[in-house]
Amino acid sequence: VKRRNAINAPLFSETVDTIDRLNPYARIIVDEAMRRGIHVQVIDAEGGYFRLSHGGRGVICRESLSELTSAVAMSRCADKRVTTRLLRQAGLQVPAQMLAADTASNEAFLREQGAIVVKPVDSEQGKGISVNLTAIEEVETAVEAAARFDERVLLEQYCAGQDLRIVVINHQVVAAAVRRPATVEGDGQSTIAELIDKQSRRRAAATGGESRIPVD
């Protein structure tokens, strides 16, 4: 057991080294909980599980999720087709979609949209996603790549513009972030591959290995 001497700081049942093994998503929650005097117990650092306790109440979390998140909510987020239908029903404009099928059907959808996005139906952190595809050869290659993460692959209308991630709490927008593609700047000596590797290692170090620049 390790004790913190700061005013209003909590006791917690795991050492700082164990808490440091949590990934960045869990650490954001844990660090803020500790700052607010909430008791933190790491249950499984590798899996991202921890318990928050305060005033006789407790809740188990996994990374940024808690046991208060319902299975229905999770299923709505896990299937991008369901997510899109719910957003459309709420009055938002959403891109056209279809499940990847045979080459002829995929090509017909591509001709109709002009440019498309290929993504697994259920994935996260941009895994298996290819953007702004305009040739059927690109689409077929992207479908194979996406199928490594989910056998169900989605073709979606490509909409040019900023890639936003918006956080809504209690029906209020509280934060937004713009996602931008990784870039490197030449130094007159390093190759592009070396610059990418250096940038990728910096990202990995800053995010506990969660963020790297993929090289294809």
Write a brief structural summary.
This protein is an alpha+beta fold and 216 residues long. It contains seven helices and ten strands.
Features:
216 residues; alpha+beta; 24% strand; globular; disordered N terminus
SSE inventory with pairings:
Elements: H1 16-20, H2 24-35, E1 39-44, E2 49-54, E3 57-62, E4 65-66, H3 71-78, H4 80-89, E5 97-99, H5 103-113, E6 116-120, E7 130-133, H6 136-146, E8 153-157, E9 163-169, E10 172-179, H7 192-206
Antiparallel strand pairs: 1-2, 2-3, 3-4, 5-8, 6-7, 6-8, 9-10
Q: What report would you give on this structure?
A:
By secondary structure, this protein is of the alpha+beta class. It is 33% helix and 24% strand. The protein has seven helices and ten strands. The protein has helices at residues 16-20, 24-35, 71-78, 80-89, 103-113, 136-146, 192-206; strands spanning 39-44, 49-54, 57-62, 65-66, 97-99, 116-120, 130-133, 153-157, 163-169, 172-179. The strands form three sheets. It has a four-stranded antiparallel sheet, covered by helices on one side. A hairpin with a 2-residue loop joins strand 2 and strand 3 (57-62). The longest helix is centred in the C-terminal third of the chain and has 15 residues, at 192-206. The chain is globular, with a radius of gyration of 21 Å. It starts with 15 loop residues before the first helix and ends in a 10-residue tail after the last helix.
